[in-house]
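[audit] Reproducing an earlier prediction to check determinism. Same input, same settings, fresh worker. If the tokens differ from the archived copy the diff job will pick it up downstream; this log only records the rerun itself.
[audit] input (182 residues):
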Amino acid sequence: MRDEPGYFEAALSDFVYDMASGGAICHLADAGYSIDRIMKELDFPTPRKRVEQIVYRHMLENKIIQEQLPIEQQLLKKQRFSNITVRELGERLEQQLRLNGEQQSYIKLPLRLLKMKVCFDRESISCLTQEEQAYLLGFPWEKEYLYHRLTGGMLEIGKQLAVKSEWEISFYFLQTGEVLIL
């Protein structure tokens, strides 16, 4: 056992929160709820920071989000699409999702750029609904990028950002080894 002051208290606190609300938080995160919405749904009062940590850890463990893709550089060297019309974007994404499956399809989110821009201009993500904005803003901002599996909700967010924002948005399809960069 560690001799650090407060170690036991911290471990006990983690256990209490995990038992009281951890399962519910993970379930709501799996349903695509934003941190704000999860906070409203909880019966047991849980600090926001703790909810953020539980959601982030759960999503990492289940590979819904990843801090890096092990084959990103190989994919970028292999193929690059460009000059895609809005109509073609939807068709290409749907085709790649069918070929790769959701488990092997990711979007690269420019978190640090998003944070800097949103701090000065919330209009930069106005193409998204309030719930979609809250979902994106609930991620930790320490990382430059974060890879999010192309679940139904994230697919829609990705399409909107790719078409209506100034950021370069990349979609990674691991099974076929293709990258769609807009």
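[audit] rerun output stored. Observation attached for the diff report: The chain has a mean pLDDT of 81.
[audit] end
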